[in-house]
Design a protein that fits this description.
The protein is built from three helices and six strands. By secondary structure, the protein is α+β, with helices and mostly antiparallel strands.
Length: about 150
């Protein structure tokens, strides 16, 4: 049972014990004329079916959560740009905002040249990350009277 949660065999064993006990009680009740006993055993079987369904549902949820956790552990935050990358795909970063905000895997665009520098953008939330910023020309007006000195 490689990769199985250690609690699953325990739950399955417990369930098997309950089934065995119910079968024994059912066999004993067959020779009984007590209608209430037979109804109680029928209700116990119904509850057992519900329990089996819930265990199956929890097992599926557990597998999904483990898969998400394993996927999350593969992403490392890039120390310079803040987005997340995997060793297997260093040129396919994901959005920091989406990942940290809701655990979403939203890839960033390829690097685009823009007036302010080289930038990537999230394809889902449009959050942008500059990998290179170009120096901006100082466009502020100098002095009290503007650039002409008036």
């Amino acid at each position: 049972m490689v990769g199985m949660d250690p609690m699953i065999p325990t739950a399955v064993t417990m369930l098997a014990n309950v089934v065995g006990t119910l079968r024994n009680a059912s066999d004993l009740a067959k020779s009984s004329t007590d209608a209430d006993l037979k109804i109680a055993i029928s209700e116990a079987y119904s509850a057992l079916i519900d329990l089996k369904a819930k265990i199956s549902e929890l097992d599926d949820e557990n597998r999904e959560l483990k898969a998400k956790l394993a996927q999350k552990e593969n992403w490392k935050r890039h120390s310079k740009f803040g987005y997340y990358i995997r060793d297997e795909e260093p040129d396919a970063p994901i959005c920091q905002k989406c990942y940290e905000g809701g655990g979403k895997i939203a890839y960033l665009s390829a690097v685009k040249q823009e007036p302010g520098g080289l930038r990537r953008e999230c394809i889902q939330c449009n959050h942008g990350v500059y990998e290179v910023r170009y120096p901006q020309a100082d466009t502020r007006v100098r002095g009290r009277r503007g650039w002409m000195g008036n």
